[in-house]
Write a structure and sequence with these properties.
The complex is a heterodimer of chains A (306) and B (519).
Chain A lengths: L2 H29 L9 E5 L3 H11 L12 E6 L15 H13 L4 E4 L7 H7 L2 H8 L2 E2 L8 E5 L8 E5 H5 L2 E5 L1 E5 L3 E3 L12 H6 L2 H8 L8 E10 L12 E10 L2 H11 L9 H8 L11 E5 L1
Parallel strand pairs in A: 1-12, 2-3, 2-7, 3-4, 7-10, 8-10
Antiparallel strand pairs in A: 1-11, 5-6, 8-9, 10-11
Helix pairs in contact in A: 2-3, 3-5, 8-10
Chain B lengths: L4 H22 L7 H8 L3 H11 L6 H12 L2 H5 L2 H16 L13 H18 L2 H6 L1 H30 L19 H17 L2 H5 L2 H10 L4 E5 L9 H5 L5 E2 L4 E2 L9 H5 L5 E5 L11 H25 L27 H7 L5 H5 L5 E3 L12 E3 L12 H5 L10 H4 L2 E8 L5 H4 L6 H5 L5 E5 L5 E5 L9 H5 L8 E11 L19
Antiparallel strand pairs in B: 1-4, 2-3, 5-6, 7-10, 8-9
The chains are: A alpha/beta (306), B mainly alpha (519).
Chain lengths: 306, 519
């Protein structure tokens, strides 16, 4: 290469690079996409559910990293059981409330919540305290109790679960926040982020009769994945899950896990419950399908104690 | 009293009563607290009699108030308080719109034999045997079934229609609801009665009340000695016959200036119609007539009584075998006994008190109560039975026990209901997914509110259900949740006599509040 050519080419490259950088910056200014998420996971311990969420989401760059102005947001808590908040069978209402408030602060146009409950949905919504909390925060509380709201989708690559009927809100919203509660579970041993998706589908019975663990893992292949998983580990049902029978089943762990990788989130959660991760079969299955990473050592985790 | 205001008052009052009953039955949101519903129900004659028979409290003696009211005013109950009667008035009006002839009644002779036979038959069957005939003929129960089977679905359809429109505008205050519906055969009785009562009221005014309804006939007997009644002032009457034509009960014999009080339902239409102002409602001195004994009539009554005393006993002995539980099969899901709702105490008790008004069926937030076909035997048809293939009994709910108008379901406080065992879960291992498919399931254990169904280690990493009947209350959530078909791998067999379950106990876990992240 001649010196002249070298100079020409390097000048060109330099200009292009400079332009790219400056455009990039401007692009960020306009689109408000923020910086890239620095951490794969943020875990917070020792505070109240709402305070832990505030700190955790700040570490991830704020909810505005995930939500753009005018977008519709679906917040999907676990409201599966007709049980009071102290028994921790449903996501902590304080956490749900703060999440919704932060969604609006980040510019969300609408926030919706729903769950396909196991117990009577009216009682679940009411007695879990979530309906009140969500409405106070300004969210729309929607029923998940009739098949009419569910639409058939395909799950490409699913081993046992190839299609499912999911709630229309999942398809119609722009941002999806998965906000499960960590609990012991009688048959899968643990319920967290991945298993919370049993509340967005209509036919759970199919999952139960067609290799429950594989179906849970398969569902994670569906294109509409959570933009953020917020795993409530404040009060944790450590036995007799997923409903719990009495207060003896609940241990106060005062923790919260925020992550974009739900397999990693569930892996961390399994350690909170002190269950060997490979025993919760859907976690290694989901890892194998490539929908997330269960090797926490390879992830950038921020741990905060309040 | 000659004021046309009487009629307006009757229409106004009965409209309110009818709307209240309509709301109580069609309300799918459980908006109205049980105590208000109970006030409304307390004056329903048959329900109140049965409730009083059970409780013997002054508050449950609404029927006595009705009897006193009848002795004072005649059959005003039929026009003011009976929802089926008010409903018939509405139908009769509609009939008049369809064909003028349907509103031109005219005096007719009473169907004496039919109505008194039906009254005697109903009374006898009820006293000797149980409520089984009342189940069919109690006007309130008939009305309740009409509402539950036909009116409520229409209301839900309307709700869904509005909810659909609102949904388009992103408003979710109303939710789409499933209509539910019952087994097709269950519709036969309410449909049959709907045709009967509907056609009669559409074309013949209050003929059903004056020919078939046992409450109408009974109150009609009492009203023969009532203090207030409709009377015709002979000196003012020009015998135009308008009153007779306009009388829904066909009970005004204007030629003889006579009103058959046993059929008059105090609708006060005649007062308004009369151009001579000859008809009034007021205090009447009962003249004692000397009766001739009708030997034929007495023979007939005696014969039918004799027949009726025999009939129930034969029927009873035939029916009994359906309720004796036999040992359950372990392979097929074979129920030996139906599951009767909580508060029923025992199936026998329940069957003898329930008139199948279906208020509990429509009030159940989970739609687990279904009208029975032959689960309880012929005599328990249309009474509510738990159907765990359709739904399950919500742990935190006592609605059905709170609103039962006849006390067939005794009120239960929540803590007592949570320990009321109405059936027992039976696990069929050979049907279970965990055994047949060798994959995890546990839907039953997940659903169990007391953890009477729990999981124990099975092959490899698998866990399989096991049951603890000491703490099982038979709510049926396990059976409902079980995904196997056609037979469930776990089902609830009803208990003929309800039991008290033990309280579920748990110990503290060894997992403690963490101080460090375990990851």
């Amino acid at each position: 290469m001649k010196r002249r050519d070298f100079l020409k080419k390097s000048t060109g490259a330099g200009l292009a690079a400079g332009a790219a950088i400056s455009f990039g910056r401007h692009g960020k200014l306009w689109a408000n996409t923020g910086e890239r998420v620095k951490y794969d996971m943020v875990a917070v311990m020792g505070g109240n559910p709402d305070a832990m969420f505030d700190i955790g989401i700040q570490e991830l760059g704020g909810l505005s990293t995930f939500i753009q102005k005018g977008q519709k947001v679906l917040v999907k808590p676990n409201i599966g059981w007709d049980v009071i908040p102290e028994l921790a069978a449903n996501t902590n209402p304080l956490l749900v409330k703060r999440t919704i408030e932060q969604c609006f602060r980040a510019g969300a146009k609408e926030v919706y919540i729903f769950d396909h409950t196991c117990d009577n949905w009216v009682n679940c919504y009411k007695n879990s305290g979530i309906e009140r909390a969500a409405k106070d925060a300004g969210a729309k509380v929607v029923s998940g109790d009739t098949e009419k709201y569910y639409q058939e989708i395909e799950i490409p690559g699913g081993i046992r679960l190839k299609r499912a009927k999911v709630h229309e809100l999942l398809l119609e919203t722009d941002v999806f926040l998965n906000i499960p509660i960590l609990k012991h579970h009688s048959s899968t041993r643990m319920t967290g982020a991945l298993k919370n998706m049993m509340g967005v589908v209509w036919d759970r019975g199919y999952w139960h009769s067609n290799d429950l663990n594989q179906c849970i893992a398969d569902y994670a292949l569906f294109e509409k994945k959570p933009d953020l998983n917020i795993i409530d580990c404040y009060n944790v049902v450590v036995k007799n899950g997923p409903q719990g029978v009495s207060r003896e089943d609940v241990v106060q762990m005062r923790s919260l896990i925020l992550t974009t990788d739900w397999v990693a989130g569930d892996t961390a959660a399994s350690k909170m419950l002190n269950i060997p991760t490979e025993k919760i079969e859907y976690i290694p299955m989901a890892h194998k399908l490539g929908v997330g990473n269960m090797n926490l050592e390879s992830l950038n985790i921020r741990r905060i104690k309040m | 009293m000659r004021s046309p205001f009487l009629r307006s008052f009757r229409i106004f009052f009965s409209a309110i009563i009818f709307i209240c009953f309509f709301i109580v039955f069609a309300d799918f949101t459980n908006l109205i607290p049980a105590k208000y519903i109970n006030i409304l129900l307390s004056l329903q004659f048959i329900s109140s009699v049965l409730k009083y028979y059970d409780l013997r409290t002054l508050l449950s003696a609404g029927f006595a108030a009705v009897l006193i009211l009848t002795l004072l005013t005649g059959r005003s109950y039929c026009s003011f308080l009976c929802p089926l009667g008010i409903g018939q008035d509405i139908f009769s009006r509609i009939g008049g719109r369809i064909k003028k002839k349907f509103r031109r009644f005219g005096y007719k002779k009473p169907y004496t034999v039919i109505r008194y036979s039906l009254l005697v038959i109903t009374l006898t069957v009820t006293i000797v045997w149980g409520v089984y005939l009342l189940t069919l003929l109690d006007p309130f129960s008939i009305f309740g079934r009409f509402m539950t089977f036909f009116a409520k679905p229409v209301v839900i359809l309307l709700n869904n229609f509005v909810a659909g429109i609102l949904g388009k505008f992103d408003i979710y205050t109303l939710s789409h609801l499933d209509i539910g519906g019952f087994h097709l055969t269950a519709y036969s009785i309410p449909a049959g009665f709907f045709i009967l009562v509907g056609l009669l009221s559409l074309t013949r005014g209050r003929l059903y009340c004056n020919m078939i309804c046992p409450v109408g006939t009974l109150l009609g007997l009492l009203s023969k000695v009532s203090l207030f009644r409709i009377k015709i002032n002979k000196s003012q009457c020009s015998k135009c016959g308008l009153c007779s034509v306009g009388c829904k009960s066909s009970c005004i014999d204007f030629l003889n200036s006579h009103v058959d009080v046993s059929r008059c339902v105090d609708c006060f239409n005649c007062i308004k119609i009369c151009p001579d102002k000859a008809i009034s409602y007021g205090f009447v001195n009962v003249k004692r007539k000397v009766h001739k004994t009708d030997v034929k009539k007495r023979k007939f009554i005696a014969a039918s009584l004799a027949m009726l005393f025999g009939l129930p006993y034969t029927a009873r002995s035939q029916d009994k075998k359906t309720l004796v539980p036999t040992k359950a099969s372990t392979v097929k899901e074979e129920k030996t006994c139906p599951v009767c709702p909580p508060g029923g105490n025992s199936i026998e008790d329940f069957n003898t008190d329930c008139t199948a008004c279906s208020l509990c069926i429509t009030a159940c937030p989970n739609n687990v109560l279904q009208p029975a076909l032959l689960q309880y035997g012929v005599k328990g048809m249309m009474q509510p039975v738990m159907d765990y293939h359709k739904s399950f009994c919500t742990y935190n709910c006592t609605v059905c026990t709170e609103i039962c108008p006849t006390n067939a379901l005794h009120p239960l406080v929540l803590e007592a209901k949570k320990l009321t065992r109405i059936g027992k879960a039976i696990f069929i291992k050979d049907n279970c997914i965990v055994k047949t498919e060798k994959t995890a399931c546990g839907a039953c254990s997940e659903a169990c509110p007391t953890k009477a169904v729990y999981m124990v280690p099975y092959e490899g990493n698998l866990v399989i259900p096991e049951t603890n009947n000491e703490i099982c209350i038979g709510c049926g959530h396990c059976e409902f949740a079980c995904p196997t078909t056609p037979y469930k791998a776990i089902f609830v067999d009803g208990l003929p006599v309800h039991e008290v379950a033990q309280k579920p106990e748990t110990e503290k876990s060894d997992i403690v509040t963490p101080v460090e992240f375990p990851f």
